Amino acid sequence: MITAMTKYSFIMFNAEAEGFLKRLQELGVVDITRSRKPVDAKSSAILEKATEIRKVISMLGKFDYSKDPDFKAILQASESAVPPEDPVRETLETAARIERLKTGLEAARKEAADRMHWGDFDRSSLDRVKECGCRLHWYRVAKKKFDSSWAEEYPLQIISEDGAYVWFVTVSESTSEYSFPVAETSAPEGSWKEAIAEAEKTEAGIIAAKGRLLRMKECIPALKDACSREMSDLDLYLADASGETAAENMLTVFTGFAPTEDDDRLCSEFDSMDIAYLKEKAVEEDNPPIKLKNNRFARMFEVLTGMYGMPVYSEFDPTPVLGPFFLLFFAMCMGDAGYGILLIIIGMLLKRTTGGMARLGPLVTTLGVGCIFVGIVLGTFFGINLAEASWVPGWLKKCMITGEIAGYSAQMVLAIGIGVFHICLAMTIKAVCYTKRFGFKANISTWAWLLLIIGGIVTAAAALPGLVPETVVKCAVIVIGAVSALGIFIFNTPGRNPLINIGAGLWDTYNMATGLLGDVLSYIRLYALGLAGGMLGGAFNDLGIMLKDGIPVPGLDWLGFAVIVLLGHALNLAMSCLGAFVHPLRLTFVEYFKNSGYEGRGTAYNPLTRQV
Questions:
Q1: Is there a contact between 181 and 147 (Cβ–Cβ < 8 Å)?
Q2: Which of 13, 22, 9 is nearest to 237 (CA)?
Q3: Is there a single domain that holds both residue 239 and residue 169?
Q4: DSSP track, 558-574
Q5: What is the mean pLDDT of residues 222-234?
């Protein structure tokens, strides 16, 4: 059901607005109309700050150096790191510094690799060579191109060599002309040890920065609290920005909604705050937010109602009807009692988790219970046909729906019958609710169609077995037909030209006939999906038995059987769950909601609260 709402209008001086909204956050039950204006500079700044904090929280959560080869050094660096004064700024700066140091380390290691072949040397010695009027020439030549006779013509010294290259230097006078058979290479900017020292220094900087980030992971709880505060401030500011100014910007007027059941507590609080406010019963024209109130069973299915859309204030809550039928449709599409046991186990495991998945636990468990009962009625257990199994007791087989009715499968006839009942229930709900909202005069056609369809079904059900005399049946048909025809073709819109009403009635008849036929036939999917899932499960059982009989090795035959059956039923369970969720949802959202007149244009109740 939809919770009754009370509309409040608050009038106060501008200076009192912020404190008043903070008090509403503490109460946590008043839904203040939010601003629909573009985000301004202040709200944008708050949002950017909260986004930056969330980004830092995400970054810190991903930093895990347990597999880093320098983990011990990083851990020691984190223990000696000073707690950060500004975790957000320091995290972003440290992460950027690590990226710069990694680039520098790669360059330093490459430089060290290039200098390694020149070995270690003293820069002062090179300077003394220059002071003596000489100049060094540096060469790297492929070994197969190196000519040892060069040493006889030039003062040449080989520094190092490997299987591919030879590194050597020559000396010449600074003032004299110099030429050599191969091109000269660039001189190293420093010695190999200096490059190694630079790489080690850069690596130590990375370790220190990683240790700093590891230490800042301790700030995650505080950052989460800061993010919650920023979001609360943003929510408060947007609520404040929705106020209408009056009396030359000296007064502010707010409009809010709260459940009527909280009136006494709220009025007591408002009276103690010495503010001026008006209280009145909310009506549809106010477009109040929607808060659903259902029992424990129906509450599990409110999420499905929210997927389509909340009802408007004067509509009906479809959840109490949606819940039982969705459970029935899901169980029929699964069509297997064994899978129901697995769903119960999955639901119990979900209840032990945290977060949003835990809230799905009771729903999955309930769906599993429904699958067990419906699976027994349909006679399927892990793909096994219970109606043909010798180990199933006879009294249980009597509960199963098997055989044919008028040449059609009894289970298919059952699915069609459930569809007819579901659509008739939807049309009844539409007639009652529309009459309550818009009056009987505006819904004569709706009641006429309801009389024609339900009256015709009841009359046919009584006439076929011979429960009612033929004369009574004829009279009932004439009365139902005449009254329905008047409502559909003549009085569908009282006060309008009868010829226009007849034309509108003919068009409505065409749409109703074709639409109802398609809607009813849509429910065959309940039978088809259940049959397909049972046949697929039985096929996996047969494959497992064939593999077991085909393997002559004891033990290995049962292993192959178990692998085929377990994998096959796991795949079948996954596909069946997907189909059993989507198709009942379609039958609800399309067939049921269309015939029940449900609109789902309401807004969910979202009170102003403070996040903790």
A1: yes
A2: 22
A3: no
A4: HHHHHHHHHHHHHHHHH
A5: 79
Are residue 411 and residue 528 in the same domain, yes or no? yes
Q: How far is CA 144 from CA 114, 148, 150, 184, 464, in A?
A: 20, 11, 14, 17, 107
The domain total for the chain is 3
The pair of three-digit structure tokens given for residue 255, joined into one six-digit string? 């409009």
Determine the Cα angle at 194 with ends 193 and 200, to 5°.
Answer: 85
**Tens-place pLDDT, residues 303-360:** 888 888 888 888 888 889 999 999 999 999 988 888 999 999 988 888 887 766 778 8
Residues ≥6 apart with Cβ < 8 Å to 347: 360, 361, 362, 363, 364, 365, 366, 367, 368
- Specify the DSSP class assigned to residue 441: G
How does pLDDT run across 378-431, given as a tens digit for each residue?
888 888 888 888 888 888 888 888 888 878 888 898 899 989 899 889 888 888
Token duo for residue 148: 């040892």
pLDDT at 602 over 80: yes
Residue 37 phi, psi dihedral angles, 5° rounding: -80, 160
Same domain? For 24 and 78 the reply is: yes
Q: Alpha-carbon distance 188 to 112, whole Å?
A: 10
Which whole number is the average pLDDT over 138-142?
Answer: 90
Which residue segment(s) compose the domain that 177 sits in? 121-190
Residues ≥6 apart with Cβ < 8 Å to 200 = none
Asked whether residue 87 is assigned to any structural domain, the reply reads yes
Q: Would you mind telling me the total number of residues written for the chain in this entry?
A: 612
Average of per-residue pLDDT across 529-547: 85
For residue 208, the tally of other CB atoms under 10 A from its CB is: 20
Q: Over 60: is that where the pLDDT of 559 sits?
A: yes
Task: Report the alpha-carbon distance of residue 607 to residue 259 in Å, rounded.
Answer: 10
Q: How far apart are CA 17 and CA 225, in angstroms?
A: 25
User: Which letter, b or e, does each residue of 504-523 get, where b requires 16 or more Cβ atoms within 10 Å of its Cβ?
Assistant: bbeebeeebeeebeebbebb
Which tokens go with 237? 């500011």
Q: What is the mean pLDDT of the chain?
A: 83
130, 156, 190: which is the final residue of a domain? 190
Q: Where are the beta strands (DSSP E) in 5-53?
A: 5-13, 31-32
395: exposed, middle or buried (C-beta count within 10 Å: 0-12, 13-18, 19+)? exposed
Residue partners of 106: CB distance under 8 A and separation at least 6: none
Cα gap 259→290, rounded to integer Å: 10
- Give the dihedral sign, CA 379/384/385/390: negative
Q: φ, ψ for residue 385 (rounded to 5)? A: -80, 105
**More confidently predicted of 58 and 238:** 58
